[in-house]
Amino acid sequence: MEQYALLLAATLNAGTVLAIAALGLLVNEKAGIVNLGAEGIMLCAAVAGFAAVVHTGNDWVGFAAGMGAGALLAAIFGVLVIWLNTNQYATGLALSLFGAGFSAFAGIGYVQEKLPERSQFAVPFLSDIPLLGSAFFKQHPMVYGAMAMAAVLVWFLYRSRAGLALRSVGENPEAAHALGYPVRRIRLGAVMAGGALCGLAGAYLAVIYTPLWVEGMVAGKGWIALALTTFATWRPARVLLGSYLFGGVTMVQFHLQGIGVDVPSQFLTMLPYLATIVVLALISRNPAWIRVNMPASLGKPFYPGA
Amino acid sequence: MLKLEPRAEISRFWTLASPLLALLITVLIGVVLFAALGKDPVRGLQVFFWEPIKSSYALGELMVKATPLLIIALGLAVCFRSNVWNIGAEGQFVMGAVAAGGVALLADKDTGRWIVMAILLAGVFGGMVWAGITALLRDKFNANEILVSLMLVYVADMVLSLLVFGPWKDPQGYNFPQSKTFEAVTKIPKLMDGSRMTIGLLLGLLGAAGLWVFLFRTKAGFAQLVGGLAPAAARYAGFSSRRALWTALLVSGGAAGLAGALEVAGPIGQLTPYVPAGYGFAAIIVAFVGRLHPVGIVFSAILMSMFYIGGELAQSRMGLPKSITGVFQGLLLFSLLACDTLMAYKVRIFKPFRPVAQQNSAQQAINSVVKSTAKGGA
Predict the structure, then answer these.
(1) Which of A104, A108, A223 comes nearest B151 by C-beta?
(2) pLDDT > 70? residue B290
(3) Could you give the CA distance from residue B169 to residue B273 in angstroms, rounded to a whole number?
(4) CB A12: neighbour CB atoms within 10 A?
(5) Could you give the CA distance from residue B242 to residue A250 in angstroms, rounded to a whole number?
(6) Does the structure show a pLDDT above 80 at B86?
(7) Distance between CA atoms of residues B315 and B321, nearest Å
(8) Predicted model pTM
(9) Which of A103, A304, B3, B29: CA 20 to 30 A from A117?
(10) B261 with B99: CB under 8 angstroms?
């Protein structure tokens, strides 16, 4: 039983990386912007976070560095697509390609670096409960942070005035503009917030989850996070749940290898990618359902006064 | 303050000038980057833009790397022009290489030269099948082709890895994860002695001519273009969007697969986990920088090949990491997208409206009038 508790714990941990990134992308997309650069942002933030921890020894400085790097890259992307009206797909793709190259370039000196051993986090008292304790209460604070983030996001999007403005910009920017909302600034704010969260996810991956830096280490998690927002039909709670499901798929491969199932490791590595394709196909099968839930102006540029 | 003013029509001048301006910006950033890293920027420019063209051997190597980029980007141009976002050409390249490698491994000492044809066709087929999955899921399940094609890149890498670590591993290969070296008969014919250029380059150039005819001189190509530019108009004209989707993905998948076949049976000569070299992703940049036009793509493929060779030389001669290539590739696409704004917009410099300042100047005008009348009166 204990091993299943540990599997569950590992699932939550793996899902956290996806959850933070996907919640960030959800904020982007609720404001009407698709950021295909998530993968590149996560890679650069992973290097930034890892390097910051190597030099300062403080994980939280690493997270802050990752968020800063993410927000900065997202700001460049944002200015291009929001003010210069460049194609969102092409620009996001440019960011992903640039991020892959830049992170490999900037991270070359950190490939052999190791981070100091850390003590395991544990919630007092609760972590002593058998099974449940090791499944749920011996996690890094960021795991609980991701859950709290989803809750805050539900409140922000559906219960706050600012959230309403953000959603209106994603649904109907012309109407929001007519009401006097600064549509382009709201969009930039959403893009930068989303970039910061993708950055946090990248930093968490390199500093806590793995923890080391290897070229291309994000390995498609940014793209899976993008797919997750569609799976979740743009709802924060479902994004969180979907992230844990995909975290579970990643973990099942290690579990199967651990109990000695004789399947080539390549099949198991494929699993998360194949699962993404299958779920995407199943969810997208009903175009009407997607259309009802998708922010109406997703991916469309907005020119005030045109 | 700067303001963007929409142009009445797309500027022809900037359509051509924007890639050049983007290249200039990338070079300038590169110079700053070299200087910041404490390297001689002039030496850096030399390594990227002079060394790859200074001898006939170097030129040949330039073409060797440009060939796969050219072939893949031509296929992608059909996709992007039809507004189909296939970004998984890397995966289609790998599956083309796997299929071609499978055929090449069948050859033995008595096999005839026809095997080369079979290898190329297998490559095209492999790429088409892989892109076909994306087309099928888009067509039948409405699944986003960006995500599906990209996820399939990772799957293709794993298929290759599975084969070279497993059934196709060379028994005499000291347990290295690679297939045996292909028989000499499978080698893609070279263009000339003393260079590694193959007939792949000719196929690429023929492909460019073929693409030009297809896009601009055939009805099917026209349907493809209209579907991308104005889906509603295409529907009204009776052009099938499903046919456009399948055409775009099968053409680009086939092209990427062909490039994969030319690589494994050409310069590489065996299947290894290092077959995926990022050409499929770089070709996206090649396609955009080449304006999705066959002629433009020929030039941008050569430019991108320079970046690759420059990166390798920067590593061996200047002690810089090879990954600097990826930085420049990304920067080039970024600057291009920004410069492309100039195609559709004019930049106007305007003075922000300041009521207070205007009041002052109005006051001054009144004052001067008052003064002059006062003078006149006296």
Answers:
(1) A223
(2) yes
(3) 11
(4) 23
(5) 35
(6) yes
(7) 5
(8) 0.91
(9) A103
(10) yes
